[in-house]
Design brief:
Strand order of the largest sheet: 1-2
Radius of gyration: 22 Å
Helix content: 40-55%
Order of helices and strands: HEHEHH
Number of helices: 4
Strand content: 5-15%
Shape: elongated
Length: about 110
Amino acid sequence: MLSASAPSPIIIPIRKARSKHLIAEARRDALTLVTTEKDLARLRHGGSLPDWAQQIVPFAVTLEFDDAAWLRTIRTARLFKARDRFGNLGGQDDCRRSDAHRLVGA
């Protein structure tokens, strides 16, 4: 059950002082401070979490699509658009769209 939330702008990293404040607030109210695995990884320095961030619990976020075929179609279209815009950077001039579609759609 979510007891409280503290939104943070996605582009601006949360500062150490703000994190310490949130940790103290969670401890005071007997709450567990959670964040996404991705955001927790952003707090790491030198491969490990600083002492002040050890109590933050990560949770996984999974994205699922109801229509995987639609996603493949959109992804393929974007890849072709990028290839047409930037050229064939892979050096394989004989790559055909059907071959690329088979690779991307797999």
